[in-house]
């Protein structure tokens, strides 16, 4: 029983990281109606930038975020203004093709700069520390990443529901043309959203890089987990993405408990079964 509780707790904390991966994808879908195939590669880019800053300045992964978060925001803003705005509102195919090409370019750039070797972000003893909670062993790093994930989701949900920026986001998502008539610069707003998305990705990248070795070609796997969390929770639903990530994380660790190689398979299986039972996602609205 204790082993099962530890597996579920570990799965929930892993799922919180997957949810953080998926938050940016959920915002892109909800606000811009765009699927970014390069999303996973941008997560890997954030991890490599953290690694570079750590090496250059001799600092830890969390301190490196003081530099990497603004860097990722600028990259996201620039990508949207220069490249991605050209395909927003032009159907589903154009963004898919453009971001697929961007994914390939990013992978090749990372391979040229960093080689194809795997690396990880070293957090010292912090990554190994843990404590017992009612007989259940809890890792400190997964717990911290879970708390950060919950805080970011809560903050994002509040921004969308109660702030002026959130009202602008809903207006642009519902009708960009009408939003422009009342003074909203949708192109600049899309760039700000993408900048925010990549800033969130930077936080997720550090947690990911400490937890798991990464390489330039690790992006598609991160994209898959992100996409599953978003679709499982319901497209564009922020807290739905969080719940979807938790479900995928628990399913993976329960599968790994059966056999070490079955973790990802169980996660994909649960996703497919849930999608068959409720195609619009757990918290999505069905078509009328």
Descriptive account of the structure:
Helix 2 runs parallel beside helix 4, helix 3 packs antiparallel against helix 8 and helix 5 packs antiparallel against helix 8. A hairpin with a 2-residue loop joins strand 1 and strand 2. The chain has one domain: ABC transporter involved in vitamin B12 uptake, BtuC. 73% of the residues lie in helices and 3% in strands. The chain has 288 residues and is mainly alpha-helical. It has 11 helices and 2 strands.
Write a concise synopsis of the structure shown.
By secondary structure, this protein is an all-alpha fold.
- With strands numbered from the N-terminus, the spatial order across the biggest sheet is 1-2
- What sequence of helices (H) and strands (E) makes up the elements? HHHHEEHHHHHHH
Give the helix level as a range of percent.
over 70%
Quickly count the helices.
11
Give a quick set of tags describing it.
mainly alpha, ABC transporter involved in vitamin B12 uptake, BtuC, two-stranded antiparallel ribbon, 11 helices, 2 strands, globular
